[in-house]
Amino acid sequence: MMLSADEWTILALSLKVGALAMGAVLPLAFALAWVLARTRFPGKLLLDAVVHLPLVVPPVVTGWVLLLAFGPAGPLGSVLDRWFGVTVLFRWTGAAIAAGIMALPLMVRAMRLSIEAVDRRLESAARTLGAGPGRVFWTLTLPLSLPGVLAGAVLGFARSIGEFGATITFVSNVPGQTQTLPLAIYSALQQPGAEATVWRLSAISVALSLVALLASELLTRRVRRGLHVL
């Protein structure tokens, strides 16, 4: 299980992409979860469907849409290039964007369930005692829903480091830039005599995913225990 220098680079890049994707998407995921859990408005069902669309469409389609959006002639890509001189094509930041988009539905779902599980009567009682909306949110709603938020973040991280289809379509498979664990495993499978590399990288992927799933389950159980006590 000793990793080569290239494999350490792949692992470090995967963790960096997963961390950036999860951190960047976390505020958006929580905001969407809050809107879907606590508000009513025309088009809410459509918003819910759009948020969860990456779960059901082929990842290649998501990657193609990102390529159209962030390409040199795309609406977002042209703005980034013209105003900031930045491109995300064939770069690890582009891989993080693809991973974040694919992780968003899982994060929103976990956070939404956690927010919906908070007893609204507790919030009403707090407001009756003089607490403002901001104080109710920071001292009551957020702490009660925090384990679910963390569980969503962990699931998002796990999904990010396992992303393949959208990434390879959007930013290709560039060693040192976009070649995360799934892409490196795919490349090794195409090379004769690279079975040992496939085994090592696959074992690392399984271990990381298993740890993330266990952490998410533990956090979910904590939410249930807390609600049972309340």
From TrEMBL:
Membrane topology, as annotated: Multi-pass membrane protein
Domain of life: Bacteria
Transmembrane segments: 12-37, 49-71, 83-104, 136-158, 197-215
Location of the ABC transmembrane type-1 domain: 11-219
Subcellular localization(s) per the UniProt record: Cell inner membrane; Cell membrane
Keywords: Cell inner membrane, Cell membrane, Membrane, Molybdenum, Transmembrane, Transmembrane helix, Transport
Signal peptide residue numbers: none
Similarity comment: Belongs to the binding-protein-dependent transport system permease family. CysTW subfamily.
Function: Part of the binding-protein-dependent transport system for molybdenum; probably responsible for the translocation of the substrate across the membrane.
Protein name: Molybdenum transport system permease
Organism the protein comes from: Sphingomonas insulae
Species lineage: Bacteria, Pseudomonadati, Pseudomonadota, Alphaproteobacteria, Sphingomonadales
